[in-house]
Amino acid sequence: MSYFGTVLLTxxxxxxxxxxxxxxxxxxxxxxxxxxxxxxxxxxSGWNDPPDLEQAVxxxxxxWKASVFAAYVADCCAQLHGAVPDAxxxxxxxxxxxxxxxxxxxxxPVRAGxxxxxxxAQIINWAAAAGLTxxxxxxxxxxxxxxxxxxxxxxxxxxxxxxxxxxxxxxxxPVLPEPRAYEFDPDDEPFAEVTAYMxxxxxxxxxxxxxxxxxxxxxQPAAWxxxxxxxxxxxYAALYGGGRPLAELAAQAAWVSAAxxxxxxxxxxxxxxxxxxxxxxxxxxxxxxxxxxxQIADQVTFVQNHGKEMPNGSFFSDRITGPGLWPDLI
Length: 330
Ligand SMILES: [Zn+2]
Description:
Elements: E1 4-11, E2 31-36, E3 39-44, H1 53-64, E4 68-74, E5 77-83, E6 90-94, H2 116-130, H3 136-148, H4 160-170, H5 192-195, H6 201-215, H7 223-237, H8 246-266, E7 273-276, E8 279-282, H9 284-306
Antiparallel strand pairs: 1-3, 1-4, 2-3, 4-5, 5-6, 7-8
Helix pairs in contact: 3-4, 6-7, 7-8
Bound molecules: zinc ion.
Zinc ion binds next to loops.
């Protein structure tokens, strides 16, 4: 399964999702694991990823007065960053630190000249500054494993996100716990219509805004659009408590849904095709308009039939919880 998103590690008394400026890294929070002593690791993503993580982790490390480790996983590779307050942020790339031309989008772009030795030293220095005691043999194994076994079929397969979590284990968290339970399910009613990935009203509103900016269209956004975007942020910010009350979020979801329904009844559907650089192309907004409601209904049916009683962002197979591949390397 493809994985695109940020794995973020820091230490705080507050749930990471409630920390200021977390949205610079991501707002679509998925799994939060408590690692003990205030350490937490969060999987999150945003809109139009990847964010410029080098800039974002530098900013939040200063703001949170904490050490921050982050990796944006782009399916087959990942860019890693480490920040501590008042020090330069470092960046590195896996599975191959030297592959500045891996073909995936990274922000900032991967710099040439990376080596395993430099990356490993940066991670060990970061861990020391963060007050952690890493397992150097395990870190060494985790960093090299995917590149070195690329052409061999021995040993278990390790995806890029699993590799990042092996690095997290090596930092001193050898057994990763199950994610913290949500206070409510963001993928079920009444929020699915707004939060659904790609088909939800918040995604559609963001997409419409980007389209208007791109084409210079001056048409005013519908009234529900800004509300949907704000509601989506607030829903995810409230996943672990401490955010807006659930009843208030549900009332806003009902308002957005009704306003969207009214707009849908009162305006013609978007055209089937739009002109891009003088040529007609299929209009994504029409596809979303026509198929969005069915996609969202299917999602809700799935969640209600297969969802967990205590949802926590993990589904059938949780590949991350547990001791990982090399529990004996300490
Ligand atoms: Zn890459």
